[in-house]
Design goal:
Elements lengths: L2 E5 L4 H17 L2 E8 L19 H13 L7 E7 L2 H8 L5 E5 L13 H9 L4 E4 L10 E5 L4 H17 L2 E8 L10 H18 L10 E7 L2 H8 L5 E5 L13 H9 L4 E4 L4
Parallel strand pairs: 1-2, 1-4, 2-3, 4-5, 6-7, 6-9, 7-8, 9-10
Antiparallel strand pairs: 5-10
């Protein structure tokens, strides 16, 4: 059985992540496993002014985790695990390729001005499986649509097929977004090149929209002349979720986390799922 693994730290962000994970698991049949990573310096939520416990143990960690889960009324549907170590490493090492990791965008240690915390970003870089980043301040009414970034690469097709399976279980439509950009060099910025790029984008979307995984789904396509991150954020602002590959085509495809997926996870307010390429 596949698992949906949720990082818990007692914050409002992790509570939202847990609720999202349980709702998804009810459709997918996944086991939900709530994981709290702990250490002397990371003991979960404490009321303001309460000091850290100098002899904090796994028993204490289990109490913190149980309190966080019990407060959500989801305890009967969740397996609880406490593991000592740094949060990002603990959660990603616990996960397998067939799992899905769900995290809040910002945990207890995050800076309030940042939409994506350091632990969430590190999990995106290390995870062996898809990672869903859930933002707590998302109050936008959502369309029942999943927005997917596609560029024709193998990893973007993996993202599309993950999104198609999710759309089938959710009863959602799928919007395929492909962004293309005007050449930087003035000598090739002529109408013929513009027309060729626009035609190439339309042809790519036509090919991708014929993927068998999309059979039976309502599919929209959107070719956008602009940056990929901005195009996905604009199209997915009121979507049920945005699904994107960790890296596709482009000069940064060999980085641990592609610049587009990092920007989308950082700035979106709707749930973002980053799908990894094959190891």
């Amino acid at each position: 059985m596949s698992r949906t693994i949720v990082g818990i730290d007692g914050s409002e962000n992790s509570a939202r992540a847990l609720a999202w994970a349980v709702e998804r698991a009810e459709r997918s049949g996944d086991e939900v496993v709530a994981v709290l990573a702990w250490s002397f310096f990371d003991q979960g939520y404490r009321p303001a002014g309460e000091a850290m416990q100098p002899e904090f143990t796994d028993v204490d960690a289990q109490r913190v985790l149980a309190k966080a889960i019990d407060s959500s009324d989801l305890a009967p549907r969740v397996t609880q695990r406490c593991i000592q170590g740094p949060a990002a490493e603990v959660i990603t090492e616990f996960a397998d390729a067939g799992d899905t990791i769900v995290v809040g965008a910002r945990g207890l240690g995050g800076f309030e001005g940042l939409l994506l915390g350091s632990v969430s970003q590190r999990i995106l870089e290390l995870a062996p499986c898809p990672v869903a980043v859930i933002h707590v301040d998302d109050a936008t009414p959502h369309r029942n649509t999943i927005v997917v970034g596609v560029d024709g690469s193998d990893v973007s097709m993996r993202a599309l097929r993950w999104a198609a399976a999710e759309a089938s279980s959710l009863g959602a439509s799928v919007r395929l977004v492909h962004a293309w950009q005007w050449p930087l060099f003035a000598e090739v910025a002529v109408p013929e090149v513009y027309d060729a790029l626009a035609k190439g984008a339309d042809e790519l979307l036509a090919e991708v929209s014929g993927d068998p995984s999309l059979a039976g789904l309502t599919v929209e396509v959107e070719a956008v002349n602009g940056g990929p991150a901005q195009s996905l954020l604009a199209n997915g602002a009121d979507a049920a979720m945005i699904v994107i590959a960790d890296r596709g085509r482009g000069p940064l495809r060999r980085t641990l986390l592609g610049s587009t997926s990092r920007q989308v996870a950082q700035h979106a307010t709707t749930p973002v799922v980053v799908v990894r390429g094959e190891a």
